[in-house]
Amino acid sequence: MHCWVCGKHAEFGRLEVRDADRGVDKYCLTLCLACRSGGLVNPPPPEVLSQYYDALYYGGGDSKFAAPLQAIVNLSTRMRARSIRNSLHRTPAPLVLDVGCGRGSLLVELAGLGARGVGLERAAPASFRGRAGMELRVGELTEQRFRAESFDAVVLWHALEHLGNPQAVLAEIGRIMKPGGLLLIAVPNNASWQARFFGRCWFHLDVPRHLHFFGHAGLLRLLRQQGYEALASSTFDPVQNVFGFVQSCLNGLPGSAPNRLYQLMRSEQAPIRVLEMLLWMLPACLLLPFALVEAAGSAARGDGACSIVFACKK
Ligand SMILES: [Zn+2]
Predict the structure, then answer these.
(1) Which of 79, 167, 194, 249 shows its CA 20 to 30 Å from the CA of 238?
(2) Distance of CA 238 from the midpoint of ligand 1 (Å)
(3) Which residues of 78-104 are buried (b: 16+ CB within 10 A; e: fewer)?
(4) Considering the domain boundaries, does residue 21 fall inside one?
């Protein structure tokens, strides 16, 4: 079979994975054995899939997670916004499109740094935090009819794997981005040590929301094929890689409910759930040193749990 990500004629493997949110439905992935990219077999129809993007997914109120984790996530978002703004330092008031903007946190940070922002989501999250100079669009990117060459930068932060047709999305971004414009993209790295070691227990599989799976080298090749030039790339995201390791270990415990700590760390929890979260935090803290060593080691080898690429439109 031909792999649309790495372009090779390769063998494909199959992996059965449980839906970690509901714990009952099983899904099957096919993965290219050359680059470990692949896709979900028989994904749910859009009307079923939309139920997986509820208020709990986006987080209600002022925060998505319990305070300590939210503080780390906020810091990570602020650093990402600074990195984007620094890359566009020659452009006054750059226009940035955030595909899969969620609550709009990155756009808010960018607005504070003098950028204008457009967010795109599949449905308007009730917790979207609009600001002056920000716009929220709803629906598919290819339906938006943005003007050609209108954006200085486009962000796909853990979004491409959720979209039905990644090739069409990358082609459309190439059309609406200015020449030399910046694309920041991040996806879970399915060729990572974590993905290979944890298999079906890996936290970042997130089926059925994730419809596509990318290995780091496969993603770089796909971007080249779509007319982008990678300026910098990494497989290190301290938040995603470290939490992914801890939660994947916990998922592997006999009798453990999948992604339980992650679910409990969401902000809207009853007090009894807070007690359960603290109990899960005990093994999580014991695993933390191992997670830090794994995150540093795998990133140094280039097989960390996230694939992050800064690219420009040629
Ligand atoms: Zn492949």
Answers:
(1) 167
(2) 26
(3) bebbeebbebbeebeebbbbbbbbbbb
(4) no
